[in-house]
């Protein structure tokens, strides 16, 4: 019983730390979104590097959590893959049942928020990419389906859009 309680405490502690890291990841993704929305491109690379650092920290916390879960599963004589947070909330004695239920709800909410912010970041980043593509189209002419700028004889194909605008300028 005492070993079970210690294993439950260790797992709960790992989950609290993991929640903090996931919250930090959400913060970094939100900062990235704000930078993209504010068109502050000079800071986006640094923000993305910080997101990657947060993801690395999350991976480390996941390893610690998995180890704590394996210890508890060994004590309970069950497969660690069967011990989801919902199952832990159902099986654990008080007060751990409430703690694991709280973790489950918090992780679901954080995952939904991260998914939402990540989608917004993708839309903003695609908008930036589209703006770059539009600027390139303005400079070189719109991209035509033909990728080559040379015809079959090796001569410059003046009908393709690539480089046409530049040729007009020079």
Give the structure's gist in a few sentences:
With 170 residues, the chain is mainly α. 76% of the residues lie in helices and 0% in strands.
What's the arrangement of secondary structure elements?
Blueprint: H1 2-37, H2 41-76, H3 85-91, H4 96-140, H5 164-169
Could you walk me through the main structural features you see in this protein, from its secondary elements to its overall organization?
- The chain has 170 residues and is an all-alpha fold.
- It contains five helices and no strands.
- Helix 1 packs parallel to helix 4.
- The radius of gyration is 26 Å and the shape is elongated.
What labels would you give this structure?
single chain; 170 residues; mainly alpha; 76% helix; 0% strand; disordered C terminus
Radius of gyration: 26 Å
- Parts with pLDDT < 50 across at least 5 consecutive residues: 160-170
Largest sheet: none
Structural class: mainly alpha
Order of helices and strands: HHHHH
Percent in helix: over 70%
The helix count comes to 5
> Could you say which overall geometry the principal axes of the C-alpha atoms support?
elongated
**Share in β-strands:** under 5%
**What's the average pLDDT?**
83
Number of E-state strands: 0
End-to-end gap: 83 Å
């Amino acid at each position: 019983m005492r070993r079970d309680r210690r294993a439950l405490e260790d797992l709960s502690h790992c989950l609290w730390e993991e929640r903090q890291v996931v919250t930090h990841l959400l913060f970094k993704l939100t900062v990235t979104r704000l930078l993209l929305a504010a068109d502050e491109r000079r800071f986006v690379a640094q923000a993305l590097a910080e997101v990657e650092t947060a993801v690395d920290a999350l991976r480390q916390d996941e390893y610690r959590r998995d180890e704590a879960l394996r210890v508890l599963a060994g004590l309970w004589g069950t497969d660690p893959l069967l011990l989801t947070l919902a199952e832990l909330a159902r099986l654990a004695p008080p007060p751990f049942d409430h703690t694991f239920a709280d973790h489950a709800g918090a992780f679901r909410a954080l995952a939904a928020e991260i998914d939402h912010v990540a989608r917004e970041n993708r839309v903003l980043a695609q908008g930036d990419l589209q703006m770059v593509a539009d600027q390139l189209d303005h400079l070189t002419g719109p991209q035509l389906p033909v990728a080559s700028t040379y015809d079959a004889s090796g001569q410059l194909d003046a009908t393709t859009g690539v480089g046409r605008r530049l040729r007009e300028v020079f």
